[in-house]
Amino acid sequence: MADRALPIIFINLSGEMIYVIQQRLEAQNISEDKSRKVIQDIISTMLNDQFIKELFEPQHMYSRSAMQSVFEKLVHSSIMRLNSNSMSKLYDLMLMVFKYQVVNCENPEEILLVTLNHMDAIKNCAKPYPELKERVENVYSLLISNYKDMPHEDYQCLYKCIEVFLKDLNIRVSVLMRLGLQLPSGEIAPCRNKQIMNVDFIKNNLKNNESSPILKSKDPIQELLSYRRLEIDGDRGIELGKNKICAV
Q: Exposed, middle or buried, 196 (CB in 10 Å: 0-12/13-18/19+)?
């Protein structure tokens, strides 16, 4: 599954980038028109049909430096301009918040739900622009068709590939340190109060519904990716990947 890790990593980092840029635009009192234009241009480039088609083709994972170059071009596809230092800080924050989310997944399948949370954020930002609706829906469709039915063993491999991409990444980020989510060494502190879905969550909430296919499933882990969790407007049942950190 090493050749299928790139879309997952890219979309998660893209969602984090959108969170941060939105926050920075608001903090700098940039006019609403300019802010909307920045977000529109970035998402339009991010979801370009040809780019997305190539993104989902099986391929080797990018290095972190190569991925940074992709995001630098993405940011500068808008009227926004960041110097090298600002871009590096933005990318470091994106990486470390994503690493926090990966570390706190309870099982490999949850990485798809985290990805969908990030995609939900991108979709919400794209709502004012009807021309982006089809592109957004296309990415949802590709995520579901490529990852929904993957065996648990393949998800384990995918998760391991993401861990390798984030390996030895212990950049200290002030917001993570302040929230107690990162140790002084830079390592991520596992969350003690994970508000995320697990197998017991599904069973307990559906135990009175005898007709539910989830109760009959022989693979309850895989059922984390069903029961309306994967619909475009579905409840992911997981908080990881929502804008809970960068907004602080």
A: buried
Question: Do 8 and 111 meet the contact criterion of CB atoms below 8 Å apart?
Answer: yes
Predicted pLDDT of residue 229: 84
What letters, b where the CB count within 10 A reaches 16 and e where it falls short, cover 9-32?
Answer: bbbbbbbbbbbbbbebbeeeeeee
Tell me how far CA of residue 197 lies from CA of 44, 96, 107, 113, 220, in angstroms: 32, 22, 10, 10, 12
Please give the sequence-ordered ranges of beta strands (E in DSSP) within the chain, or none if there are none: none
For 190-239, how does the pLDDT look when each residue is reduced to its tens digit (9 = 90+)?
A: 775 544 434 444 444 444 444 444 444 445 565 677 657 888 888 888 89
Do the Cβ atoms of 92 and 146 come closer than 8 Å? no
State pLDDT tens for residues 122-151.
999 999 999 999 999 999 999 999 998 899
The pLDDT value recorded for residue 190 is 78
In the chain, the N- to C-terminal Cα span, in Å, equals 35
Give the span between the Cα atoms of 134 and 47, in whole angstroms.
10
C-alpha to C-alpha distance for 121 and 239, rounded to whole angstroms = 12
CB crowding 113-124: b at 16 or more within 10 Å, else e: bbbbbbbbbbbe
